[in-house]
């Protein structure tokens, strides 16, 4: 079950949040580095999913293989300590277009 856009949902202690890639060039090296930097601040497990493919948000190589192009719809999921705060921090980067546009 997918959460409503912009709202976290819980499924077996996993929080999920839908996001859209809004910046013009998608998730390239710089946005991927920003995501990793934000994700590593939290001890929880954070995954980013596109079309059934899940990658660790703390892995720059995983993020670069995700094909997060402009307009892509992704699902952030987090479980563990500070999961809600982690989702908020990462979704904020998407909303702010990774400070690019």
Average pLDDT: 92
Amount of beta strand: 25-35%
Oligomer: single chain
How many runs of DSSP E, i.e. beta strands?
Answer: 5
Q: Span between N and C termini?
A: 32 Å
User: Helix and strand string, N-terminal first?
Assistant: EEHEEHEH
- Count of helical stretches: 3
CATH class: Alpha Beta
Largest sheet: 5 strands, antiparallel
Which blocks of ≥5 consecutive residues have pLDDT under 50? none
Helical proportion?
Answer: 25-40%
Radius of gyration: 12 Å
* Overall tally of structural domains: 1
Specify the overall morphology: globular
Can you identify the CATH superfamily? HPr-like
Strand order of the largest sheet: 1-2-5-3-4
Derived from helix and strand composition plus strand pairing, the structural class reads alpha+beta
Named CATH topology: Histidine-containing Protein, Chain: A
What CATH architecture label applies?
2-Layer Sandwich
Descriptive overview:
With 101 residues, the chain is of the alpha+beta class. The chain has one domain (12-96): HPr-like (Histidine-containing Protein, Chain: A, 2-Layer Sandwich). The protein has 3 helices and 5 strands; from the N terminus they run E-E-H-E-E-H-E-H. It has a 5-stranded antiparallel sheet with strand order 1-2-5-3-4. The mean pLDDT is 92.
